[in-house]
Design brief:
By secondary structure, the chain is an alpha/beta fold. It has 2 domains: 81 residues, Met-10+ protein-like domains (GMP Synthetase, Chain A, domain 3, 2-Layer Sandwich); 169 residues, 3-Layer(aba) Sandwich (Rossmann fold). Helices cover 27% and strands 35% of the residues. It is built from 9 helices and 13 strands. A 7-stranded mixed β-sheet has the order 9-8-7-10-11-13-12, with helices on both faces. α4 crosses α5. The longest helix has 13 residues. The N and C termini lie far apart (54 Å). The mean pLDDT is 94. The structure holds S-adenosylmethionine. The site of S-adenosylmethionine has 21 residues, from α5, β8 and α7.
Length: 277
């Protein structure tokens, strides 16, 4: 989605260079990056967006990066008022408010990729489940026995529960609370564990390791510099080995950009065996 193209001819070339190329559409809410130096172009930009995307009701300007335990960015409403919206992804619908919860359409490709890997009858754990996109897309399109989602932010949990109903998925169980407190109490082991918390997944390796089934998979997300790419799979394998589980990194890819030369990576780990002692 090119904001620059929409504004070409209406603002100076210098101003145009300061406009970020893309913006995010979440249901009928648009999220844009608008640096202070071009704040005076606000109305022009909002008009251009509304003209091109007639369903849009609210435009948010990002004023603070994703932060805090709940991983929510700060936004200012620059058009409209209602910030709760319904995002659509892979035939599923997700009710959410970006002012209160994390959600990114940019991870939808990952959702699809993981869903294709799921085999019928798997028991799946989604740590850091948010409003439920991984859990619900998997439950809707694969044939898992059960998907368990754990999320700390009460607002996200509320949306997650509603999204389970909206999408009519029956085999999803939602738990509210800290992964570290909830997961050890869950019964049995899991065929597949997702850890979509790239800024601090490392602190939860022990929790995942204790619940991973031999022969199963762990999808580990982390931020890393491009220069670390080569050593990353081995480093993650070591983290799990230290927690008593031998894993083999079978696949890795960048699935998002965090900062210049810093990406979000996913590493698919096959759980080879539990190490004794
Ligand atoms: C990066 S978001 C990912 C959300 C979701 N998986 C998605 O893709 O939209 C990380 C989520 O983990 C939650 N979280 C942070 N610490 C947690 C913890 N200790 N236990 C459970 N959830 C936690 C945050 O509230 C946030 O919703």
């Amino acid at each position: 989605m090119s904001l620059r193209r929409m504004l070409r001819g209406k603002v100076s070339e210098e101003e145009l260079l300061r406009v970020r190329r893309s913006f995010e559409i979440v249901g009928d809410v648009v999220i844009i990056n608008l640096p202070d130096e071009i704040l005076h172009l606000k109305n022009l930009i909002v008009d251009a967006i509304l003209k091109k995307h007639k369903h849009v009701k609210t435009v948010l300007r990002k004023v603070g990066e994703v932060n805090g335990v709940y991983r929510v960015a700060k936004y200012e409403v620059i058009h409209g008022g209602k910030t709760e919206t319904m995002a659509k992804e892979h035939g599923c619908r997700f009710l959410l408010d970006p002012m209160k919860v994390y959600y990114s359409i940019r991870l939808s490709g990952e959702r699809e990729r993981i869903t294709r890997l799921v085999k019928p009858g798997e028991r799946i754990l989604v740590m850091f489940a948010g409003v439920g996109p991984f859990a619900i897309v998997i439950a809707k399109h694969a044939r898992p026995k059960e998907v368990v989602g754990v999320e700390l932010n009460p607002a996200a949990v509320e949306y997650f529960r509603r999204n389970v109903e909206v999408n009519k998925v029956e085999n999803v169980r939602v738990y509210e609370g800290d992964v570290r407190r909830i997961v050890p109490k869950l019964e049995g082991e899991f065929d597949r564990i997702l850890m979509p918390s790239p800024h601090n997944a490392e602190s939860f390796v022990d929790v995942a390791a204790a619940k991973a089934k031999e022969g199963g998979y762990i999808h580990y997300y982390t931020f890393a510099g491009v220069e670390e790419e080569k050593e990353l799979p081995g480093r993650v394998e070591n983290l799990f080995r230290e927690e008593g589980v031998e894993c083999r990194a079978e696949f890795m890819r960048a699935c998002g950009n965090f900062a210049p030369y810093v990406n979000r990576y996913v590493i698919d780990l096959k759980v080879v065996k539990r190490l004794s002692g």
